[in-house]
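ok so I'm stuck.
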Amino acid sequence: MSTPLDAGIWRAELPEGWSAEEEDDSLLIFDPEGPGTLQVTCSEMEDGLVDDDDLRYFAEELIEEGQEPARVSIGPLTGLKFEYQDADTDEWVVEWYMAADDLFFFITYSCPRIDRGQEDDTVAKFLHSLELDE
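replied:
not stuck anymore, here's the structure
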């Protein structure tokens, strides 16, 4: 059974057995017994709506490194998804640069490369439960 998680601007269903902790402007979501951590950061644009140019600007470093984004839609969010192995840490990383009207979401999941895929279904279920507060 999942637990409702209300982050103010957005809400989602916290997977069973997972915890959430605030860190700076982000929310860290993780299974204390699992290999990975999901980090969700949401900010509101002061001037208008978040568009594709904004998302590409935020993801500029990955794009310049040659990472190819996939276009994704998750519930009310649309944007870019990157998947890669971090050469410095040997971690598997998935980054989403997502927009919903004037909200920008930066979402990252990382885990040891050897554990890649173990929590994919749970992370996807969490992301698909995400809703915006009205």
